[in-house]
Amino acid sequence: MTLMHEAGIDIETMSATRVKELRIATYNVHGAVGIDGKFAPERIAGVLAEMDADIFALQEVPLGGNGHPDVLDGLQRMTGLHAVAGPTLDTPERRYGNAVLTRYPVRAVRTLDLSFRSREPRGALDADIDCNGELWRVVATHLGLASSERRAQVEQVLQSFDTPALPVILLGDLNEWFVYGRTLRRLVTHFHRARALRTFPTRYPLFALDRIWVHPGERLMRVDVHRSRLARVASDHYPLIAHIARRASRHG
GO molecular-function annotation terms (predicted)? Predict the structure, then answer.
């Protein structure tokens, strides 16, 4: 039995939905440690199965190293999706950072070092993904805790775009606590503003730390928070999922 069957997902209904829309999610998995303090990658995999997205951008993912678990490898095996690692900490002892899981082929991968001075290493994982014949540029990131750090990181990300030749989705844990912060105002100059939905902390969501930004904006249908019983305990963040119109659906 697959994880989707175990989660009670109607696979035929989901398949019909995917004909009309592309589902892309972002999820800070908190090292696969839940709010109960338990390390349980299988719970993260269960949440992914509940969502049944086409592409997942993940943050705070253990990627292996001496004596450290490779959570991404486990999630890949449990979900059957393609996996791409984007470590921000990469030493023989420990690898840790961003990742992408996708049901579609990955055509190209780039990484962007967003580390700021002596603060915790940060980065963006930039992948071109062939979504059933349409190439999407998916940029998964986890920004810093200081406002000056985030502003510098956003400028660096935007400089990497220039004029987008591909449709782009920028998503991840932006760590922006203020709805009208400079970081978000700067992003609006390049991306469609999506709804700011509260995702953190799962015990009592107060802050919209996790965000999804889309270009061109008219492709974005809606954004939802996935607030299941399992998601409440699996991490300290709820996942966020965007429903994006497929190119063919705009003409028919």
Answer: endonuclease activity
Which of 207, 179, 212 shows the shortest CA–CA distance to 23? Answer: 212
* Domains delineated in the chain: 3-250 (3.60.10.10)
Give how far the C-alpha of residue 227 lies from the chain's centroid of Cα atoms, to the nearest Å.
16
CA distances from 173 to 18, 19, 140 (A): 25, 28, 9
pLDDT in tens, 90-101: 888 889 999 999
Q: pLDDT tens digits for 54-75?
A: 999 999 999 998 888 999 999 9
Q: Distance from CA of residue 201 to its chain's centroid?
A: 17
Q: What is the pLDDT of residues 206-230, one digit of tens each?
A: 999 999 999 888 999 999 999 999 9
Query: Residue 72 — φ and ψ, nearest 5°?
Result: -60, -45
